[in-house]
Every structure is written in structure tokens, then in C-alpha cells.
Amino acid sequence: MRRAVLVLCGLLLAAPSAAMDAKPLLYSLLLPGLGEWSLGYRGRAVAFWTVEAGCWAGNFYYRDRGFDLRHEYEAYADAHWHTARWASAFSEDQPGWLAWMPASEYDANAWAATCPVAVAFDTTHVGYLESHFAPYHEDPQHYYENLGKYDWYRWGWDDYDCVVDDTAHRWVYVGLRNDSEDAFDTARLLVNILVVARVVSLADTYLLLLRLERGGDPASVETAWRLDFAPTGRGASGFRIALTRSW
After folding, report:
1. Opening angle at CA 220, ends 214 and 221, nearest 5
2. End-to-end CA distance of the chain
């Protein structure tokens, strides 16, 4: 992304000759392909617009999917993980640092007995668990992040088995959270592609302006574009679209 911005700045600083019309450069900066279209290069413009439309559609789709999955994994955690269960795994009584939780809620969700694995961890890491715990009402983002990120939060899942020291619900939660993050990453990637497309279109328009300034003919370039549409198999099971150009 940083390189793309540097290239963009360099092109803007590269002053064309006085005879060169700089408006197509502004068009390309506004919408990739618009500068090419204004110069008569229709095929290039269509290619850029296809990328632009696809990236915006993909960005909206993956952002919405990321938020939907976020709501899903948060609801899943709310249904299957509880702070009282987690704390009661290594503390026989309600800890003082959980005084903000009503005793009735703690008793309703606490384990019947402590877990040896949890007690052993707390004994060798005195004060570590409570000092690193992020309650939901103080830090919702880290609360949901920590539940799947750190092993010692596994004791709070409602299907935790102290004998095998594992929980299936945790891994379902981690999968949902990873899917959400992947969707957001894809949405951000598509935004980066939009920025790169503007830089490429700006550079392409600048080179076309140089070519036209030296006597090039836009029409001669356009005849080199070709759009092929053909089925990929028998019947109507699929089709192929190919935009090719001969240099």
C-alpha cells in the first residue's frame, strides 16, 4: 500500500508538457478507467471498471459477512462460556476480584468442584489469571479475543472435561472467530486493490498521453481488443468470458 501511494505521488509530481491535457489524469484518479475512456481506449476502461465494481461488491459482501460471523461467535461465547465457571475451576469460593458479579449468578454457573489442572496453574502463577482477565463490561474486544486465544480460558466453557483437559466448544468458537477475521482481511485486501487500480490507471493514462502527444492513434489501439464468449462444456453448465489484447 505504501509503495502504491508513493507511485501515485510521483506521477502527480511528474509535470507533463504544457501541450499535454492533464484532465484524463484527474479522471483516472477519480475512477480507474475514466481517463482511458476519455482518450478513446474503451477496452482498457471496461477492464478497470470491471475490477472496480468487483472489488466494491466484494468489499461490501466480506465486511457484512465479517460482522455477521462476529455476532455469531459472540453469541456462541455468551451461550457456552461464563466467568464464574472459569474462576471456580481454580478457586473454591468466589474470588474477591469478582465482587462485581452477584453471588447468585456466580453460584448458578460455578463448577461443583475445582479442576486440578486449573489449580496447579494458578498455584504456579499466583495472581496471573485475575490480573490478565478482561471482563466484558470493561473491555469487550479483548474479552472475546482472549476466550479462544489463551489456553487457560478453556476452563470456562460449559463442555470442559477436566479428565481429558479439553473442550469442543472452544474450537468451534475459534473457528467462527477465524472465519470472521478472514472475511475482514479479504475486505481490506479488496480496498488495497482499489487503491492500486487507481495508481495503475493513472500511470497507464499518463503513458497514453505521452503516446498521443507523440502522434499515436487511439483507434488503432482499440482494434486490438477482443472479447470472447464461449461455453465451457456441453449444455448450459458454464461459460467463459475472455478479454484479450494483442500488443
Report:
1. 85
2. 29
**pLDDT tens per residue across span 150-200:** 999 999 999 999 889 999 999 999 999 999 999 999 999 999 999 999 999
Full DSSP string of 62-86: HHHHHHHHHHHHHHHHHHHB-HHHH
Q: Quick check: pTM over 0.90? A: no
Q: Which three cell numbers stand for residue 63?
A: 465486511
Of 29, 17, 21, 1, give the one whose Cα is nearest residue 202: 29
d(CA 96, CA 158): 23
pLDDT beyond 50 at 226 = no
Q: Which residues, in sequence order, are CB contacts of 230 under 8 Å at separation 6+? A: 239, 240
At 120 the three-state DSSP class reads helix
